[in-house]
Zinc finger protein 937 (Mus musculus), 503 residues
Amino acid sequence: MGVVTYDDVHVNFTQEEWALLDPSQKNLYRDVMLETYRNLAAIGYSWEDHNPEEHFQSSRRHGRLEKSHIEEKPSEFTQCGKVIAYQSHPQGHQQIHTGEKPYECEQCGKSFVCQSGLQQHKRTHHGEKSYECNQCDKAFALLCHLRGHQRIHTGEKPYECNQCDKAFACQTSLLYHKRTHSGEKLYVCNECGKAFVLQSYLQIHKRTHTGEKPFGCDQCDKAFAQNSHLLTHKRTHTGEKPFGCDQCDKAFAQNSHLLTHKRTHTGEKPFGCDQCDKAFAQNSHLLTHKRTHTGEKPYECKQCGKAFGFQSGLQKHKRTHTGEKPYECKQCGKAFGYQSGLQKHKRTHTGEKPYECNQCDKAFACQASLLNHKRSHTGEKPYECSECGKAFVLHSYLQIHKRTHTGEKPFECDQCDKAFARNTLLLKHKRIHTGQKAYGCKQCGKAFANHSNLQVHKRTHTGEKPYECKQCGKAFGCQSGLQYHKRTQHIQERNPMTVINVI
């Protein structure tokens, strides 16, 4: 084990600063330093010929301690030969060797070698923060935490790893880091065998078995297993976003969210798929993507059984059952269940068609329409019905088609007893009850309940007749006109005895 000098661990005071402290503060400081020395000794660090108490007495940075302490008789602990300057401390030093920690926190179960360590720890629960930074007003429960924090402002990192080039602002961070080289995990869970670098990590982990959540929010009824999670949660009440991006004006409540955001500037995508060449900025996005390979759809709708690869897809789908439409067009008042649906709709007002086919001159308002159109060139119909063999351009078309076999009609009208196989049919039907005519003709102002009816009507202005009879060449503006023509003209020509009743 390496040798750590006292200058590495004690908090610096000038003589003048030490003189300003009252006796209780000085005693607390001595207890803090002794606790630090004990903790480091407990994990194997050697103080060689130094004596913690002698260091207090001789260090010029600390000044001289009160005469009453200097004159206390030293006690020698026989197990390791250490000389303890105060008679009150041999029992505490002995606990380093026995591992005994008799002082336990009633709130979270964490235990300590000495009473002063427990008292300091209790401040994390009480919220007491006596030490305030004079540069950012952030406050801390312990003086040593303030000293460590102040290095954020100075950028000082005095503790360097001798195995790599990393440096740290506080020594404990260096000690924890060194375990990444040694692989040492001293603290093992007796329920599941999982091991941890720190005792505190083990204590937090144990709550996954007990379900204990000792950190409760004082503004709502939520509780958390870790204090850090409570502090993060509290920002949902305060609106605080302390982590600001240095490249744009965005700020975040959590540092992890800031780190993820920064990748939008750097383009970094550290999470790569092992089955294809795609990479992602967030691990959660990678996990969602992997379901495209496995076909896993863990989120199922309880009303119709449709399953989704991710939670957000299920939440959006549920709106088809509830009828919720939170996204409203400011120009015409039409509402949509999805933000993407509103964006596509807006293009009906602007006439924008950003998606162009590279094989013909057609353009589309949304990318899905372009992809579907391209199959008209390739003839591709990748989705085939296993019952009748009919194939479809889109998977959603296949799902709708399957209902013709099952007879399923999951979309029910809440005003009458009718049900439909498709949600679009239900929406059209509901306009019978509401009388809504959302599709208006810009040329004459006539309005229609369905978009298809508007399209047919527009041909009365343009003169377009896309439906042509193959037998006589006569053309019509709508499909129903062609069908009526065939029934009234050509069926009678083939069978003169057929009588057509035209009302």
Q: What stands out?
A: Residues 1-12, 45-79, 81-89 have pLDDT under 50 and may be disordered. The chain has 19 helices and 30 strands. Residues 409-490 form a domain with the Double Stranded RNA Binding Domain fold (CATH 3.30.160.60). Residues 23-42 form the longest helix (20 residues).
